[in-house]
Write a structure and sequence with these properties.
- This protein is of the alpha/beta class.
- Helices cover 35% and strands 21% of the residues.
- It has 6 helices and 6 strands.
- The protein is globular and about 45 Å long.
- The termini are far apart.
- The mean pLDDT is 95.
- This is Fructose-2,6-bisphosphatase.
- GO terms for molecular function: phosphatase activity.
- InterPro entries: His_Pase_superF_clade-1, His_PPase_superfam, PGM_Phosphatase.
């Protein structure tokens, strides 16, 4: 019994690459991101999908909605696949963060450091992998779409690839990308990584 997971990173918003948004509210897709979301909807148009799950954050929901509309399904909000909680760093620019020694330590060893008043990557990994296991039992022999965030997707992939959490820099998860993972009682297999639909 296997379940196929399409791990989709939310599409572009105007702060990608400049601000660590974390869980800050009101981060919406820009015009580029809305076009990416529509291309994702086309990409999944012929898939037989049992469920569409999304992080509760606006940028993820706005990415999931065109997919759900194309497949005539409802989006299900899943807190367990929400963005990593970066605590006091949320909303800071990367220019500011690069001056913080704790930011440097956190990025060099995600396995042993925690964002201030936030989560560790291992805590993120535990919640997303746990959620996927519950979905696997619910959707045996089916496919599901999870619309989430870069670090959350990386944490899930690292677990299923048997790699340490600090290997997160070895995996690229671009906005509006899809990584496809098959999970069964026998283990798991990565079929595709960071697939992006061309404009």
């Amino acid at each position: 019994m296997t379940t196929t997971f399409y791990l989709v990173r939310h599409a572009d918003h105007d702060r990608v690459g400049t601000v660590l948004c974390g869980r800050m509210p009101d981060v919406h897709l820009g015009s580029v991101g809305r076009a990416q979301a529509e291309r994702l909807a086309q990409r999944f148009g012929d898939e037989n999908v049992a469920g569409i799950y999304t992080s509760p954050l606006e940028r993820a929901v706005e990415t999931a909605q065109p997919i759900a509309a194309r497949l005539a399904q409802a989006c299900q909000v899943c807190d367990a696949i929400s963005e990593i909680d970066v605590g006091r760093w949320s909303g800071l620019s990367f220019e500011v963060l690069n001056q913080d020694p704790l930011w440097s330590s956190w990025n060099s060893s995600r396995g042993t450091n925690r964002a201030p008043e936030g989560e560790t990557m291992l805590e993120v990994q535990a919640r997303v992998v746990g959620a996927m296991e519950r979905m696997r039992n619910r959707h045996a022999e089916r496919s599901v779409i999870l619309v989430s965030h870069s670090d959350v997707i990386k944490a899930a992939l690292l677990y299923h690839l048997g790699m340490p959490i600090d290997a997160y820099t070895r995996i690229e998860v671009e906005p509006a990308s899809t990584s496809t993972l098959v999970i069964g009682d026998w283990g798991s297999k990565l079929l595709r990584l960071n697939e992006v639909v061309a404009a």
